[in-house]
Amino acid sequence: MKTVRTISELRQSIDYNKRVGFVPTMGNLHAGHLDLISTAKAQSQLVVASIFVNRLQFGPHEDFDSYPRTFFEDTRKLEASGCDVLFAPGEEDLYPVPQGFEVSPPDNLAGILEGEFRPGFFKGVCTIVLKLFNCVQPNVAFFGRKDYQQAMIVDHMVNQFALPVDIVKVPTRREVDGLAMSSRNGYLNDAERADAVQLYLVLCQMRESFKAGHNISTVEEEAKHHLQSRGWKPDYLTIRSALDLSPLSVIQKEGNPPPGCWIALGAARIGKTRLIDNLEFNVN
Ligand code: AMP
Predict the structure, then answer these.
(1) Which residues line ligand 1 (CB under 6 A)?
(2) Domain boundary among 144, 170, 196
(3) What DSSP string runs through 100-159?
(4) What is the pairing mode between strands 166-170 and 140-144?
(5) Which residue segment(s) compose the domain that 84 sits in?
(6) Atom of ligand 1 nearest to the CA of 145
(7) For labelling alongside 57, which of 19, 69, 184, 275 has CA 20 to 30 A away?
(8) Mutation test of ligand 1: which of 146, 168, 174 has the most ligand atoms closer than 8 Å to its C-beta?
(9) Is residue 19 located within the same domain as residue 155?
(10) Are 237 and 138 found together in one domain?
(11) Residue 52, helix vs strand vs coil
């Protein structure tokens, strides 16, 4: 694996006769990230990963400074997973002048759910993803379904700007108990780690209750109370259309779950750590 820091070194290291697959990350890599690498390996001829903790997508009171940086372990994991090129720019390489041009995603996609609780987050994400796409010029890029709204917004950005990149969405990798893997799980103490799976369990409960035909607002309220009773602070727990994350628009009849592709999504704080997760399901 070749590790490069600057945009010009990066472009010189890529053989553009090959189908180039790209996996953007913020590092502190776990098995979920490595699933993206192995999917990229299977679907392209040259795999480029990036590690860059993107200041633009962090709010003023968020964890930019304390975000875990584990560069040497990360390079070993990437090498072992068959990554060909690691792009690890410094801020001075990617933002030599302040990034005055930004990509502003529309409110109907980016002002809801994560966007409601993390204002500016998706603007930061879209800006860095577009910039990284321009640096790497991949044929295909891989994103995790763990960050479902993010992958959906990137998909829309690629379509609306006619970017020549295919987007592939990779399933969420979980710990044995069901907790979605995340770099932020490292912030949890032992007691919090033991309880962290409750977010996933409550999403499973929401799915079952919705499938049983219970009213969506009852489903959401019960989920909220469940987590609150254990000391969590939920931002949102909701069921949306998996196609566009819009809320349910039909009048529900008790006992008759509406057919379609649905997704239960949640974000909640346990102690000082904010976790997110989601669960896709169909109703026939
Ligand atoms: P991050 O380093 O957190 O920005 O994540 C980089 C990429 O890895 C994003 O596309 C994430 O959606 C994806 N990712 C993070 N956690 C997981 C997971 N548990 N399973 C699959 N993909 C993941």
Answers:
(1) 25-26, 32-33, 35-36, 143-144, 146-147, 170, 172-173, 180-183
(2) 170
(3) -------HHHHSSTHHHHSTTHHHHHHHHHHHHHHHH--SEEEEEGGGHHHHHHHHHHHH
(4) parallel
(5) 2-170
(6) 12
(7) 19
(8) 146
(9) yes
(10) no
(11) coil
For residue 211, the CA-to-ligand 1 centroid distance in Å is 28
pTM for this predicted structure: 0.97
Claim to verify: residue 225 and residue 92 sit in the same structural domain:
no
For ligand 1, the distance from its centroid to the CA atom of residue 155, given in whole angstroms, is 16
Distance separating alpha carbons of residues 39 and 229, to the nearest angstrom: 39
Structural domains in the chain (count) = 2
Give me the amino acid identity at 130.
Answer: L
Do 43 and 70 sit in the same domain of this protein?
Answer: yes
Q: Are residues 141 and 77 in the same domain?
A: yes
pLDDT tens digits for the chain (284 residues)?
Answer: 999 999 999 999 999 999 999 999 999 999 999 999 999 999 999 999 999 999 999 999 999 999 999 999 999 999 999 999 999 999 999 999 999 999 999 999 999 999 999 999 999 999 999 999 999 999 999 999 999 999 999 999 999 999 999 999 999 999 999 999 999 999 999 999 999 999 999 999 999 999 999 999 999 999 999 999 999 999 999 999 999 999 987 777 777 889 999 999 999 999 999 999 999 999 99
210 shares a domain with 159:
no
205 shares its domain with 102: no
